[in-house]
Amino acid sequence: MQTPQLLLMGAGIVLFITLIVLLIRGKLEGKTGFLLFLVVIIMIGYPTIQKLTVSDDEVSIETYSNEITKNPEDSVAASKLNALLDKSGVVTTLRKDTAKLALAARALSIAASARVMKDDIPGARAYLAKANVLAPNSADVRFVQQHLATVQSNATPEQKMAAKNILQQRFITPGR
Known about the structure:
The structure is a single chain. The protein is an all-alpha fold. The chain has 8 helices and no strands. The chain is rod-shaped. It starts with a helix and ends with a helix.
């Protein structure tokens, strides 16, 4: 939990204890007491409620990323991950969890590699663009971009095949 959320929760607990003491001493009126207890509930519950609303997306990101890592040719998981990352606020929330951010960027790089292997260059570019937004300094993203450039260039067919083989060895081969 972040510091502002911890402060909100801590202040809510202190206010709750204070309200209990005032209630026991009889110095708290009905309407005012009810409103103050409502404020306390919101103060204490807000950090938890905020985390719960995001957790479904976080779990889905992790699930789809793991599916892509296990099976790079799983286009359904790749498109679901891509669509999920398009949702408003998901990338901002994901930036708070660097492990999931790196996992999602790697999964998109793997999906891009699978698209390169199928000669789906526009699809590969789309996944790499999204991975680059998530983790611009990712070694996986740069690696795939480099080999995609070779495949797209005026290189010889042997060089293009070598670039695809390198991508396959790094990302596509089972057991990696």
